[in-house]
Design a protein that fits this description.
It is a single chain. With about 375 residues, the protein is of the alpha/beta class. It has a domain of about 180 residues: Vaccinia Virus protein VP39 (Rossmann fold, 3-Layer(aba) Sandwich). Helix content is about 25%, strand content about 15%. The chain is built from eleven helices and 13 strands. Helix 1 links the parallel strand 1 and strand 2. The longest helix has 12 residues. It is globular and about 60 Å long.
Amino acid sequence: MKIIDLFCGCGGWDHAARNLGYNPIGIDNNKDAIISARNAGGTVILADITTLNPKTFGKIDGLIASPPCTDFSRAGKRAGITGNTGQLMWEIPRWAEQTNPTWIACEQVPPALKWFQHFETILQPLGYNTWTGTLNAADYGVPQTRKRAILIAHLTQPVNPPPPTHTKNPQNTLLETPLQPWKTMAEALGWGMTHHPYRTIASSRTTGGPDKEKLGGSAARKFVHQEQQQGRWIVNTGADWKKNGNRTNAQQRNINQPAPTITTQSGHQWKINNQSGTNIDLNWPHTRPSTTIANRALIPHPGTNKNRHNNATKSRNDGFKIETEHALTLQTFPPNYPLHGNKTSQFRQIGNAIPPQLAQHILQTLLPPNQPQTHKK
């Protein structure tokens, strides 16, 4: 089965497709993203999609497209139809008309829904059954309340959105498979930057056998579990500032909820704060969990700086940077997904990608199961 993924980025759709036994051909003009996708096992082409002739690819079975969303995003210029993204959106019907795929799957930010609804009027006369609407990734087990406009189309079968697997307020129902509660940041990250298997947590000075939870000694373990149970860790994204506000009172969300939408700015803005009021001095050996936290996880308390004389950081280290591993996990990529490029580029790749878990649910409505494609890389 030949599947073309336009604007493939680092491979959100393609990672999902490989989980289902398929290997799309991804196309993008971002070199870092292409290297990331290739390192992850993807078949990719570095090219400007607008300069390609779709007919050179012959008849294809599936067409995937998630054009860049900068112009549509609230964080972007909102240029919409007049911006570059508007021009790129027209690549969807161009490729559909010239390659005649059996099925089509597209994703964008919610304001792009009007585009997808317009594309329905182009695709339906070509024989496609179509569905357009907005899906919330949290309804499909993604630990993130990420809403996206979706277009799906198929030549030979009716199309419907994937049935949700999770819900904000689960209730007893007569469903054979009851909906599960939304997945939280705490669940996804090992309860939020304190107990999780990534490089910001180091093995500690523990006695009495292996520290399986990587929390440190008994005092650290007691402290961490207490903080977890009482929900004292919150995410501050640095976004949605209140009138006359600042970063410290910007958008906040408890770790016992799904994350806000991961964006291209997440690495620069997000931090995780302990709200207990406890001054966790990570430089003091008798304060736990001081020995469990390492590397780039530390965020100095606002207003502190380095001592010019000895280059020592004087701060109340009660917060953590969000690292690429954490953003990948919240986006449902593997935490060790082989991203290429500097930190800014990596966060941009994550923020631009569709969560693979959401993509997989969408693709399952279109793809026959267990039919791996056979084209050569």
